[in-house]
Amino acid sequence: MDLKERISVVLVGTQSPGNIGMVCRAMKNMGLRDLRLVNPCRLDHLDAVKFAVSARDLLDAAKVFTSLEEAIADSEFSVATTRRHGKYRNEIWTPGEVVERFHACAPGSRLALVFGREDSGLTTDEVALCRWQSTITTADEFGSLNLSQAVLIFCYEFLKGEVPDNPAQPAREVAGSALLEPLYVHMEQVFLKIGYLNPQNPDHMMRTMRRIFSRAELDEREVNSMRGLLSQIDWACAEFKGKKGA
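Structure (tokenized):
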């Protein structure tokens, strides 16, 4: 499968129809066609059609989802684009570094480029759903980019860095969101049961777990092994008598 056919652009909570139209044009300029929209504004607005120009076909073919988790479920790799750094936003790569890492993945793997709202970007929980994080370097005095500008830069990096898939490269099929999200749910349930997580704020530690396992890049067999381990812990803690030291 051609590299550009394995990349999806995912827009979360887009507020301006014009921005969606301009994203369609940016994608078509760089040869990308798979646009996915999570809870978007109106797509039949005149501005969406006006700014899409000759990319109306991408606008008409855009897929709409009610959750980010659903939109990236078929992608082994997903990239949260963000300008903010912080406790849950580290190991942030440039678009060029994302291209390099994706080229090192198994041929046939899918990648979702995830962009947030124009005014507030992606939430911490939405970033946590993605395997990687990336940012575009800008001037310190004014770092805000228009949504379509950001999409264009990422798409350009993939067009510029496109190389033929190497059939001799050992293929390692990394588990996608459809396998990882049930693992995280299972993990949270077991960790709550054994008293490892704070029931008032389980997300705090679970975000750390997500980062650890994102770096590990588990394949399907490894995910199943982890699920088996969690099931054994769940069974073995039937006689659990409370958190250690409590």
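The chain has two domains: 3-160, 177-237. The beta strands are 7-12, 34-38, 63-65, 77-81, 92-93, 111-115, 132-134.
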